[in-house]
Specification:
The protein contains four helices and three strands. The chain has 77 residues and is α+β, with helices and mostly antiparallel strands.
């Protein structure tokens, strides 16, 4: 949909709602398209660690358990 600038100023909230609903709204001056009104992409909520805190116990000592493998990776055989 293309609307003129004056109409866009008068009915901006209506056009924002239409853009949020997925309709492309182009604002024009004297019939010449100027801008496109589109919704911003929303970023997903940041992931929060620790949701299983206290639910499991990790008893492995990774450095000690994999000492030979680590030394082979870095220093060779």
């Amino acid at each position: 949909m293309q609307v003129n600038l004056h109409d866009a100023k008068t009915h901006l909230s209506r056009y924002v709602d239409q853009a949020l609903a997925g309709e492309e709204v182009v604002i024009a001056r004297a019939g010449k398209p100027l801008v496109r009104l589109v919704p911003l992409e929303t970023k997903p909520a940041p992931r929060v660690g620790g949701f299983l805190r206290g639910q499991a116990v990790l008893t492995a000592d990774l450095k000690a358990d994999f000492k030979d493998d680590i030394e082979e990776m870095f220093y060779g055989s």
